Amino acid sequence: MPLQPWMAFASSRLALIVTGYLALTLFPAHPVESWQGLAFPGNNWIDGWVRWDSFWYESIVDPHPSFIPAYLSNANFFPFYSWVSWMAALPFRAFLDLEHAFFIGALIVSSVSFLLGLTAVDRLTTKLAGTDVAARAVWLIAVFPFSFFLTAVYADALYFCLCAWSLTFAYERRWPLACALAAMASMTRIPGLALFPALGLEYLRQHPPSPRGFHLRQGYGGQVGGTGWSPWIKRAAVLIAILAIGPIVMGGYFYWRYDDPIAFLHARQLGWNRAVGIAGWARDFAYFFEPPIFACSGVADCIREFAPTRALLGASYLLLLPVTIALTVSAARTLGAGLTAWVLISVAMSLANGFDGIGRFTAVLFPVFIALAMLLRSRQVFVTVCVAWLPFLLLFFAQFARWRQVL
């Protein structure tokens, strides 16, 4: 395995682990909802990684979950991350209950997935833009202010890994593997469906179809026989069938569990108030910039009080959207059709939800970081960006660990 992904992973995660411990020791967690609790009370080294959506992923495989409200449905969460974490947790069931074993298994899944995802980014970027750009891209992902989600008990790390390797294999023309991983990504998070058209565009770039979709076969006596499928269509049909496994499994799962093949959509709109368009943007703007914003007397007080961080999060989310699009478009020639389409379609899919959570959403869009790494050719400028990002990474994770609404 290349050295840069290991170094970026180890150094950034170590800084976050220490930050989480100090944050919970100096500023104890205070859950903001009555249903919220602490997964590992008294263990400040790991408890801060289990927050918010973590409990919903555990509830998918636990018939008696402890920390979720009855008025919301876990149909909002795709189950593949929970399934993988449940399997990783099996060895720990010998001495832990289901809940705690799941969280340990999920932390392992997230950490391993993040490291493997960084390795895929390094490999793909090296082919596209060289080793220097690859090293910078890996470090930019690791110190991005919202990259802590890629180690927490969230599905984002597994999703990042599956997408990175799917697109890497696609660019290496290993199409069955690329499509199989894309199918898994579509079972991990809703935006995984953005991989399907992205892979389709890349496939068309590599394998442009012939002018005719059929070829004529020569019959007996030199006469033209029946019409047969062309090899291009046969190959494409097989790959489409592989991709279709993801949506078919999800539809069957939701129908089996909730009697509704699109239960996730109804849960998002009715219970979770997501995918509501302009209303979501208005809601988020009112929340993030609610006055007073700087009602604190010093640095410690500003960390203890969430209002300044909340406003900073809102400004960051609003800035990330245009920057993500601009960076991707500027590097489209190097990124190619697949990577460019994946980012732009993913961004378009997110717009209906408002802008809360855009930081976590952007953390997995690795082509954006490749594009930024291509611009930061000066080592001094690159280091300056990383150093500037690091305090925000630590601050946002500290607030997340304290049960503040960093989503």
Care to give the gist of this entry?
The chain is mainly α and 407 residues long.
Which helices and strands, and how do they pair?
Layout: H1 3-26, H2 53-61, H3 80-89, H4 98-129, H5 131-143, H6 156-171, H7 175-186, H8 195-206, E1 214-218, E2 224-229, H9 231-258, H10 263-271, H11 278-288, H12 299-304, H13 307-330, H14 332-350, H15 358-363, H16 366-375, H17 379-401
Antiparallel strand pairs: 1-2
Helix pairs in contact: 1-4, 1-5, 1-17, 2-3, 3-4, 4-5, 4-6, 5-16, 5-17, 6-7, 6-8, 7-8, 7-9, 8-14, 11-13, 13-14, 13-16, 14-16
Task: Explain what the structure shows.
Helix content is 65%, strand content 3%. With 407 residues, the chain is an all-alpha fold. The protein has one domain (3-207, 228-401). The protein has a two-stranded antiparallel sheet with strand order 1-2. A hairpin with a 5-residue loop joins strand 1 and strand 2. Helix 1 packs parallel to helix 5 (131-143) and helix 5 packs across helix 16. It is globular.
